[in-house]
Specification:
Elements lengths: L6 H17 L4 H18 L5 H12 L2 H15 L7
Helix pairs in contact: 2-3, 2-4
Amino acid sequence: MSVLENFDSWKDFLGDRLHQAQGQGMDQQAVSEIAYEIGGYLANSVDAENDQEAVLRDLWNVADQKEQHAIANMMVKLVRNEGTQA
């Protein structure tokens, strides 16, 4: 099963990656920028596999760049306490 098929699995996956990045000394600005880049890639290149991902994609696609950065930052906050290392 792909981590994209289940939103809770996706949040756990993102949470694990966030904890790894922070553990390697990546600062909040760098994490935010990577989240923004990933958000753009997912919205443009990956089919949503559940309703939550479809909503995020649709919001991303109607947002301007500032709003997309806000969405990316909110996703970082959402997964901060997710994953196996939380």
